[in-house]
Amino acid sequence: NTKKDFAGKKVLITLGPTQEAIDPVRFISNHSSGKMGIAIADAFKSRGAEVFLVSGPISIPFRSADFHLTKVKSAHEMYETARKIHATMDICVFAAAVADYAPAVIASQKIKKNESEMSILLKKNVDIALELGKLKQTRQLHIGFALETENEETHAKAKLDKKNFDLIVLNSAKDEGAGFQHDTNRVKIIHADGRFADSGLISKSEVANLILEEIKKVPVWI
Ligand code: PMT
Questions:
Q1: Mean pLDDT of 85-100
Q2: In 10 A of CB 34, how many CB atoms?
Q3: Which atom of ligand 1 is nearest to the CA of 96?
Q4: Per the domain annotation, does 40 fall within a domain?
Q5: CATH number for position 173
Q6: 109: CA distance to ligand 1 center in Å?
Protein backbone atom coordinates (compact mmCIF):
# COMPACT_ATOMS: atom_id res chain seq x y z
CA ASN A 1 0.00 0.00 0.00
CA THR A 2 1.75 3.15 -1.18
CA LYS A 3 -0.94 5.79 -0.65
CA LYS A 4 -0.20 8.10 2.28
CA ASP A 5 -3.81 8.99 2.99
CA PHE A 6 -3.20 9.26 6.77
CA ALA A 7 -0.14 11.53 6.50
CA GLY A 8 -0.07 14.17 9.24
CA LYS A 9 -2.44 12.20 11.49
CA LYS A 10 -1.48 11.22 15.03
CA VAL A 11 -2.92 7.89 16.08
CA LEU A 12 -3.11 6.36 19.56
CA ILE A 13 -3.59 2.59 19.75
CA THR A 14 -4.10 0.61 22.95
CA LEU A 15 -3.36 -3.08 22.43
CA GLY A 16 -2.60 -6.40 24.05
CA PRO A 17 -3.87 -7.70 27.37
CA THR A 18 -3.44 -6.07 30.76
CA GLN A 19 -1.96 -7.90 33.74
CA GLU A 20 -3.45 -7.26 37.16
CA ALA A 21 -1.12 -8.35 39.96
CA ILE A 22 -2.37 -10.66 42.72
CA ASP A 23 0.99 -10.93 44.50
CA PRO A 24 4.66 -10.61 43.41
CA VAL A 25 4.47 -13.78 41.26
CA ARG A 26 0.87 -14.01 40.01
CA PHE A 27 -1.58 -12.00 37.93
CA ILE A 28 -5.01 -12.01 36.26
CA SER A 29 -4.97 -11.55 32.49
CA ASN A 30 -6.49 -12.77 29.19
CA HIS A 31 -5.51 -14.30 25.85
CA SER A 32 -4.86 -11.15 23.78
CA SER A 33 -1.66 -11.51 21.72
CA GLY A 34 -1.55 -7.95 20.40
CA LYS A 35 -1.76 -9.15 16.77
CA MET A 36 -4.87 -7.11 15.91
CA GLY A 37 -3.41 -3.94 17.44
CA ILE A 38 -0.06 -4.33 15.67
CA ALA A 39 -1.82 -4.98 12.35
CA ILE A 40 -3.70 -1.68 12.78
CA ALA A 41 -0.47 0.09 13.77
CA ASP A 42 1.32 -1.24 10.66
CA ALA A 43 -1.57 -0.13 8.41
CA PHE A 44 -1.55 3.41 9.81
CA LYS A 45 2.25 3.63 9.63
CA SER A 46 2.41 2.45 6.03
CA ARG A 47 -0.31 4.95 5.12
CA GLY A 48 1.66 7.89 6.57
CA ALA A 49 0.40 8.33 10.15
CA GLU A 50 2.49 8.90 13.28
CA VAL A 51 1.56 6.06 15.62
CA PHE A 52 1.65 5.99 19.43
CA LEU A 53 1.31 2.50 20.93
CA VAL A 54 0.29 1.88 24.52
CA SER A 55 0.85 -1.83 24.81
CA GLY A 56 0.14 -4.39 27.49
CA PRO A 57 2.61 -7.31 27.73
CA ILE A 58 2.89 -8.95 24.29
CA SER A 59 5.49 -11.30 22.80
CA ILE A 60 4.79 -11.14 19.05
CA PRO A 61 7.53 -9.61 16.89
CA PHE A 62 6.91 -6.12 15.46
CA ARG A 63 8.91 -3.17 14.10
CA SER A 64 9.09 -1.14 17.32
CA ALA A 65 11.25 1.53 15.59
CA ASP A 66 8.21 2.45 13.47
CA PHE A 67 6.26 3.63 16.51
CA HIS A 68 6.32 5.65 19.73
CA LEU A 69 5.94 2.77 22.17
CA THR A 70 5.02 2.76 25.85
CA LYS A 71 4.88 -0.64 27.52
CA VAL A 72 2.48 -1.02 30.43
CA LYS A 73 1.14 -3.85 32.57
CA SER A 74 -2.05 -2.89 34.39
CA ALA A 75 -5.22 -1.17 33.18
CA HIS A 76 -4.38 1.73 35.48
CA GLU A 77 -0.94 2.22 33.84
CA MET A 78 -2.52 1.91 30.37
CA TYR A 79 -5.04 4.60 31.31
CA GLU A 80 -2.45 6.99 32.77
CA THR A 81 -0.25 6.70 29.67
CA ALA A 82 -3.09 7.10 27.17
CA ARG A 83 -4.62 10.03 29.07
CA LYS A 84 -1.37 12.01 28.92
CA ILE A 85 -1.21 11.99 25.12
CA HIS A 86 -4.91 11.83 24.25
CA ALA A 87 -5.51 15.58 23.70
CA THR A 88 -2.99 15.81 20.83
CA MET A 89 -4.25 12.73 18.95
CA ASP A 90 -6.45 12.75 15.83
CA ILE A 91 -7.54 9.11 15.96
CA CYS A 92 -7.68 6.71 18.94
CA VAL A 93 -8.13 2.97 18.50
CA PHE A 94 -8.95 0.95 21.61
CA ALA A 95 -7.85 -2.55 20.59
CA ALA A 96 -6.60 -3.64 24.02
CA ALA A 97 -8.32 -6.38 25.99
CA VAL A 98 -8.37 -4.53 29.30
CA ALA A 99 -9.11 -6.48 32.47
CA ASP A 100 -12.42 -5.23 33.84
CA TYR A 101 -11.44 -6.09 37.42
CA ALA A 102 -8.22 -6.17 39.46
CA PRO A 103 -7.39 -7.54 42.91
CA ALA A 104 -8.49 -4.99 45.53
CA VAL A 105 -5.12 -5.33 47.25
CA ILE A 106 -1.84 -6.66 45.88
CA ALA A 107 -0.27 -8.98 48.47
CA SER A 108 3.27 -7.82 49.24
CA GLN A 109 4.51 -11.40 49.67
CA LYS A 110 3.73 -14.56 47.71
CA ILE A 111 0.39 -15.90 48.96
CA LYS A 112 0.93 -19.25 50.73
CA LYS A 113 -1.02 -22.38 49.94
CA ASN A 114 -3.11 -23.21 52.97
CA GLU A 115 -6.89 -23.73 52.97
CA SER A 116 -8.64 -25.89 50.35
CA GLU A 117 -10.47 -22.82 49.08
CA MET A 118 -9.45 -19.21 48.85
CA SER A 119 -10.93 -16.11 47.29
CA ILE A 120 -9.57 -12.88 45.91
CA LEU A 121 -11.62 -9.70 46.21
CA LEU A 122 -11.70 -7.80 42.92
CA LYS A 123 -12.46 -4.14 42.30
CA LYS A 124 -13.60 -2.57 39.05
CA ASN A 125 -10.85 -1.13 36.85
CA VAL A 126 -11.00 2.22 35.12
CA ASP A 127 -12.65 2.00 31.69
CA ILE A 128 -10.06 3.68 29.48
CA ALA A 129 -12.24 4.10 26.39
CA LEU A 130 -15.17 5.40 28.47
CA GLU A 131 -13.09 7.99 30.34
CA LEU A 132 -11.26 9.23 27.23
CA GLY A 133 -14.59 9.24 25.38
CA LYS A 134 -15.74 11.96 27.79
CA LEU A 135 -12.75 14.08 26.70
CA LYS A 136 -13.21 13.47 22.95
CA GLN A 137 -13.03 16.67 20.91
CA THR A 138 -15.16 17.13 17.77
CA ARG A 139 -12.09 16.80 15.53
CA GLN A 140 -11.11 13.47 17.15
CA LEU A 141 -12.20 10.00 16.11
CA HIS A 142 -12.55 7.10 18.57
CA ILE A 143 -12.69 3.51 17.37
CA GLY A 144 -13.59 0.81 19.85
CA PHE A 145 -13.63 -2.97 19.74
CA ALA A 146 -16.21 -5.34 21.14
CA LEU A 147 -15.37 -8.94 21.89
CA GLU A 148 -18.62 -10.76 22.51
CA THR A 149 -19.93 -14.30 22.98
CA GLU A 150 -23.72 -13.64 22.72
CA ASN A 151 -26.17 -10.94 21.50
CA GLU A 152 -23.15 -9.57 19.69
CA GLU A 153 -24.65 -6.65 17.79
CA THR A 154 -26.84 -5.39 20.63
CA HIS A 155 -23.89 -5.37 23.01
CA ALA A 156 -21.59 -3.74 20.44
CA LYS A 157 -24.09 -0.96 19.66
CA ALA A 158 -24.59 -0.31 23.40
CA LYS A 159 -20.81 0.00 23.87
CA LEU A 160 -20.55 2.36 20.88
CA ASP A 161 -23.14 4.69 22.43
CA LYS A 162 -21.91 4.44 26.01
CA LYS A 163 -18.22 4.97 25.19
CA ASN A 164 -18.80 7.72 22.59
CA PHE A 165 -17.15 5.75 19.74
CA ASP A 166 -17.50 6.78 16.08
CA LEU A 167 -16.97 3.19 14.99
CA ILE A 168 -17.00 -0.14 16.78
CA VAL A 169 -15.27 -3.25 15.49
CA LEU A 170 -17.21 -6.31 16.59
CA ASN A 171 -15.49 -9.69 16.76
CA SER A 172 -16.93 -12.84 18.21
CA ALA A 173 -14.96 -15.06 20.60
CA LYS A 174 -17.06 -17.93 19.21
CA ASP A 175 -16.17 -17.47 15.53
CA GLU A 176 -13.69 -19.99 14.12
CA GLY A 177 -10.41 -18.22 13.23
CA ALA A 178 -11.49 -14.94 14.81
CA GLY A 179 -10.61 -12.93 17.93
CA PHE A 180 -7.72 -13.77 20.27
CA GLN A 181 -4.40 -15.14 18.96
CA HIS A 182 -5.36 -15.96 15.36
CA ASP A 183 -3.67 -14.36 12.34
CA THR A 184 -7.16 -13.94 10.89
CA ASN A 185 -10.30 -12.22 12.10
CA ARG A 186 -13.91 -11.77 11.09
CA VAL A 187 -15.35 -8.42 12.06
CA LYS A 188 -18.40 -6.26 11.62
CA ILE A 189 -17.44 -2.58 11.59
CA ILE A 190 -20.43 -0.59 12.83
CA HIS A 191 -20.84 3.19 12.46
CA ALA A 192 -22.67 5.40 14.97
CA ASP A 193 -25.43 5.93 12.37
CA GLY A 194 -25.97 2.19 11.99
CA ARG A 195 -24.14 1.64 8.68
CA PHE A 196 -21.81 -1.35 8.80
CA ALA A 197 -19.29 -3.41 6.85
CA ASP A 198 -18.77 -7.16 7.19
CA SER A 199 -15.23 -8.39 6.58
CA GLY A 200 -15.68 -12.13 6.25
CA LEU A 201 -12.74 -14.20 7.50
CA ILE A 202 -9.56 -12.42 6.32
CA SER A 203 -6.08 -11.69 7.69
CA LYS A 204 -5.75 -9.21 10.56
CA SER A 205 -3.71 -7.04 8.20
CA GLU A 206 -6.62 -6.92 5.74
CA VAL A 207 -9.04 -6.23 8.61
CA ALA A 208 -6.80 -3.33 9.66
CA ASN A 209 -6.91 -1.75 6.20
CA LEU A 210 -10.69 -2.22 6.07
CA ILE A 211 -10.99 -0.36 9.39
CA LEU A 212 -8.96 2.51 7.87
CA GLU A 213 -11.33 2.60 4.88
CA GLU A 214 -14.35 2.80 7.21
CA ILE A 215 -12.66 5.57 9.21
CA LYS A 216 -12.58 7.63 5.99
CA LYS A 217 -16.38 7.35 5.74
CA VAL A 218 -16.96 8.96 9.16
CA PRO A 219 -18.40 12.49 8.67
CA VAL A 220 -15.72 14.34 10.73
CA TRP A 221 -13.00 12.94 8.48
CA ILE A 222 -11.50 15.68 6.31
O1 PMT B 1 -4.70 -9.28 20.51
P2 PMT B 1 -5.28 -10.37 19.63
O3 PMT B 1 -4.87 -11.76 20.09
O4 PMT B 1 -4.98 -10.12 18.17
O5 PMT B 1 -6.88 -10.33 19.77
C6 PMT B 1 -7.58 -9.20 19.30
C7 PMT B 1 -8.71 -8.80 20.29
C8 PMT B 1 -9.74 -9.91 20.35
C9 PMT B 1 -8.13 -8.53 21.68
C10 PMT B 1 -9.31 -7.48 19.71
O11 PMT B 1 -9.79 -7.72 18.41
C12 PMT B 1 -10.46 -6.97 20.59
O13 PMT B 1 -11.61 -7.32 20.42
N14 PMT B 1 -10.13 -6.08 21.58
C15 PMT B 1 -11.09 -5.59 22.58
C16 PMT B 1 -11.37 -6.69 23.57
C17 PMT B 1 -12.24 -6.19 24.68
O18 PMT B 1 -11.79 -6.01 25.77
O19 PMT B 1 -13.48 -5.88 24.35
P20 PMT B 1 -14.62 -5.37 25.39
O21 PMT B 1 -15.89 -5.64 24.66
O22 PMT B 1 -14.45 -5.96 26.74
O23 PMT B 1 -14.33 -3.80 25.51
C24 PMT B 1 -14.98 -2.80 24.73
C25 PMT B 1 -14.03 -1.67 24.39
O26 PMT B 1 -13.69 -0.90 25.56
C27 PMT B 1 -12.71 -2.09 23.77
O28 PMT B 1 -12.37 -1.11 22.79
C29 PMT B 1 -11.74 -2.07 24.95
O30 PMT B 1 -10.40 -1.80 24.54
C31 PMT B 1 -12.29 -0.91 25.77
N32 PMT B 1 -12.06 -1.04 27.24
C33 PMT B 1 -12.67 -2.05 27.95
C34 PMT B 1 -12.51 -2.12 29.31
C35 PMT B 1 -11.69 -1.16 29.97
N36 PMT B 1 -11.51 -1.21 31.29
N37 PMT B 1 -11.09 -0.19 29.26
C38 PMT B 1 -11.26 -0.11 27.91
O39 PMT B 1 -10.69 0.79 27.26
A1: 98
A2: 23
A3: 30
A4: yes
A5: 3.40.50.10300
A6: 31
Residue 3 lies in a domain: no
Q: Is residue 222 part of a domain?
A: no
pLDDT higher than 60, residue 1:
no
Q: Is the pLDDT of residue 59 over 70?
A: yes
Residue range of the domain that includes 209: 10-104+120-215
* 67 Cα–ligand 1 center, Å: 21
CA-to-CA dists, residue 66 to 43, 69, 122, 171, angstroms = 11, 9, 37, 27
Residues taking part in catalysis: 30
ipTM attached to this prediction: 0.99
Closest atom of ligand 1 relative to the 31 alpha carbon: 3
Q: Is residue 93 part of a domain?
A: yes
HEC profile for 17-39?
Answer: ECCEEEECCEEECCCCCCHHHHH
Asked whether residue 217 carries a pLDDT value surpassing 70, the answer given is: yes
Locate all alpha helices (DSSP H) within the chain, ordered by sequence: 35-46, 75-86, 128-134, 152-162, 204-215
* Domain count within the chain: 1
Look up the pTM and report it: 0.97
Residue type, 132: L
